[in-house]
Design brief:
Length: 536
């Protein structure tokens, strides 16, 4: 069977783009199919110039693919719609299989709207192999757990697939067949988490799956059963690929990386040894929980090459944290921030407003803490009702979201300021929105480069930056700027680790005098949005 795996675009552009997080889920699917000796070609739309329909049609003319697989995160409806429609227009013989976070929370809705032949719900490595066998043998797919398909014009959803118990048995993700090295070779300084390297080569890795916690704003596409890869298995992958691809930044995506201290410390010892074997500098980042962080842990992490950690804070109000089912306290948040600063590591996190329990008082508590303690380290946002989450179901029940398909199709890729609270009025939520945006403008540093120098690569620049904290001047090379007129990018001081925004002069003026130029800015952004939509 000839199979084509399509990596969809993650930005609405018809030009090559390398500023995206590599799709580990599709890489695992590709590796699983190749392990069973299926013939798999890959088309990475992010790296190609032109419109989706023309690129895909050219590819389909080269070979008669019996199976075409693709998937996306929740915001990818329009891109998948274009991909599926193009396949249907060209060929009626190819079977389309859809997977990923876009289908798992709302399988029937998305399946009947996008109309693939099959869709995989949840973890796909075992499911896809069983499904391919039934297609090849022309047997009934009803015995394949974890899929959705049509039979006699009826939508059939089979029994849920059990979580893969031993994830060490999964193959190493297929990076080679998915144009990974091309992305690495074209990464800019913007791809470097927190601005450490001018020429980053970032390697994404997941060392576990699932999360047992039930935060109301989250949905776990890989299930709630927590499963760990052994450190031996993790290091087998890293030892092979860090050297193969000359990786200098390892990004650990695990939500619960620090839940098992013994395992964490074993990883630190192993990664430290690996880094010693390299002829180049290599660092890594991870996500930690505030529940068990301490001096010893951060010291161990830093000694092993970790330079930045990310936390899930969400709110500084205990009332809101309880409502979110977030098992932490404000005191633990404060402790995590102070300890991380003490060890001179970059701290990253979010405060998200608008939970059901939010009030003017709880929002003020969080905003006041942010302004005083971590305004330039922690991002301020608004809770988003992602499909499958408890807050999403609340919005459906209360008719805050009246049309689920319209929301997923047209509003998932933008910040929604819905009033999801139980006790605030719409006008109070609107006022909260203004307070959040004003706080971002007033308390974040926007640094305009004192010098721009064009580099050889397209839209790459060297920038001379003066840190607003330590006042040290530094050159940031290989900086990608799409539009010199209006741009901003989070970065960090290479000396003191303070975070700030690198911005164009016009953007900074807009931040400081937003009321005066808001009208012109909105027109400009509207034009860019319309151009992006046409690029589909």
């Amino acid at each position: 069977m000839k199979i084509l795996l399509i990596i969809p675009r993650y930005l609405l552009t018809d030009k090559p783009n390398y500023e995206y997080s590599f799709p580990l889920g599709l890489a695992y699917i590709s590796a699983s199919m190749k392990k069973q000796r299926y013939e798999v070609d890959c088309l990475n739309l992010n790296h190609l110039n032109g419109k989706i329909d023309k690129i895909l049609t050219r590819k389909l003319k080269l070979k008669n693919y019996e199976i075409i697989c693709t998937g996306h995160i929740g915001i990818g409806y329009r891109v998948l719609e274009k991909i599926i429609q193009t396949i249907r227009d060209y060929s009626s013989n190819s079977k389309i299989i859809l997977g990923g976070a876009i289908i798992t929370p709302e399988p029937k809705l998305i399946f009947e709207s996008l109309k693939p032949d099959y869709a995989v719900i949840g973890e796909g490595e075992t499911t896809i192999i069983e499904l391919l066998k039934t297609i090849k043998n022309k047997t009934s797919p009803e015995k394949v757990n974890g899929i959705i398909f049509k039979k006699d014009k009826k939508t059939i959803i089979t029994k849920p697939r059990e979580a893969i118990k031993n994830i060490d048995e999964l193959p190493i993700p297929d990076f080679e067949g998915m144009d990974f090295e091309k992305q690495l070779n074209n990464m800019s300084a913007n791809n470097s988490p927190y601005g450490l390297f001018d020429y980053p080569r970032v390697y994404p890795i997941m060392c576990s799956r699932g999360c047992p916690f039930q935060c109301t704003f989250c949905y776990h596409c890989l299930g709630i059963r927590y499963r760990e890869r052994s450190i031996e298995n993790v290091m087998q992958e890293l030892r092979k690929n860090v050297k193969k691809y000359q990786i200098n930044l390892i990004a650990l995506y695990d939500d619960l990386f620090s839940i098992n201290k013994e395992r964490l410390y074993k990883f630190c010892d192993e990664i430290k040894n690996l880094i010693k074997e390299l002829d180049w500098e290599c660092k890594w980042t991870c996500q930690l929980s505030v529940r068990n962080i301490d001096d010893e842990m951060l010291k161990k992490l830093k000694e092993a090459g970790c330079y930045a950690v990310s936390f899930g804070f969400e709110s500084y109000s205990q009332k809101v944290l309880n409502s979110m089912k977030k098992p932490i306290t404000p005191e633990l948040i404060d402790r995590a921030i102070n300890l991380t600063k003490k060890h001179k590591m970059i701290v990253q996190g979010n405060f998200i407003f608008g939970d059901r329990a939010e009030t003017k008082e709880t929002a003020k508590t969080t905003l006041d803490y942010w302004k005083k303690n971590c305004s330039e380290q922690i991002y301020l946002g608004f809770i988003q009702p992602y499909p499958g989450s408890e807050i999403y179901n609340h919005c459906i029940k209360k008719e805050i979201i009246k049309d689920k398909l319209d929301f997923i199709k047209n509003h998932m890729n933008e910040t929604n300021w819905f009033n999801m609270t139980d006790n605030m009025t719409d006008s109070e939520v609107l006022e909260l929105k203004k307070d959040i945006l004003e706080a971002r403008r007033k308390y974040s540093s926007y640094v305009v480069p004192t010098k721009f120098k064009k580099e050889k690569k397209h839209k790459r620049y060297s920038l001379l930056i003066k840190c607003p904290g330590c006042k040290k001047k530094m050159i940031y090379k290989n900086f990608f700027i799409e539009d010199k007129l209006v741009f901003t990018q989070w970065s960090s001081c290479k000396n003191c680790k303070r975070r700030f925004n690198i911005a164009s002069p016009l953007y900074k003026i807009g931040v400081q005098n937003h009321k005066r130029i808001n009208f012109l800015k909105n027109i400009y952004l509207s034009l860019r949005e319309n151009i992006s939509k046409r690029n589909l």
